[in-house]
From TrEMBL:
UniProt GO BP: lipid metabolic process
Organism: Linum tenue
Designated name of the protein: GDSL esterase/lipase
PANTHER family assigned to the protein according to its UniProt record, in alphabetical order: GDSL ESTERASE/LIPASE EXL3, GDSL-LIKE LIPASE_ACYLHYDROLASE FAMILY PROTEIN, EXPRESSED
Gene3D superfamilies, per the entry: SGNH hydrolase
Record's keyword terms, sorted: Signal
Amino acid sequence: MATLHVLFACILALLICSAAAAESYNKKNQVPAVFVFGDSLVDTGNNNYVHTIAKGNFPPYGRDFAGGRATGRFSNAKGVADYIAQVLGVKQLLPPYLDPSLDLQELLTGVCFASAGSGYDPRTPQKMNAIPMMTQLNMFKEYIKRINASVGPERTQEIISQSAYIIFMGSNDLTNTYPNRRLPVHRRILHRSYDQPSSRLPQGKTRTRTRPTPML
Ligand SMILES: *[C@@H]1O[C@H](CO)[C@@H](O)[C@H](O)[C@H]1NC(C)=O
């Protein structure tokens, strides 16, 4: 029994130490803000403000989110961009830059510029009127001007130089702009209806073979 107690105490001590270490690591390496560029895999709702068919603002998107509301994220709940901001210890959700209700504090800790349907090739976003990569970068330039006007050049410089930048796109270029049936990746995708929401599938069926739909 005594050995068990000692063992338990050791495990507890280890847990406390590692939690403290993780916290101090986060504090030491904390980035002031997170900026994400890309396509639907990281869009947290910019396409809600764009005239496009590539939307994530209807059920079952968002059904496991607070309130079960579809937010424009192409996910049942949080999206990859949100998790990146969370893991980096910045905030729980990374808001879309085009949301007009963002306050200064929200802007200073980072935003998402991604747009579903976008890609590196300028032709990729044209098909769905998504926000092209160049425009996402121009939005970032506009963002810099905005925060510079609010908090001044010194703080702006600090945020821009010390933050995390994540770019997550390319799959739409491969599937929509360069459809090459000989490419193994494209052949695999052609045989899947990968953007079918699971709740819309017939009972007892997990995969349907339908006409390929473009990736967003
Ligand atoms: C920020 O604003 C100042 C003027 O207040 C200007 O000189 C500077 O170039 C601006 N910096 C950026 C990055 O826009």
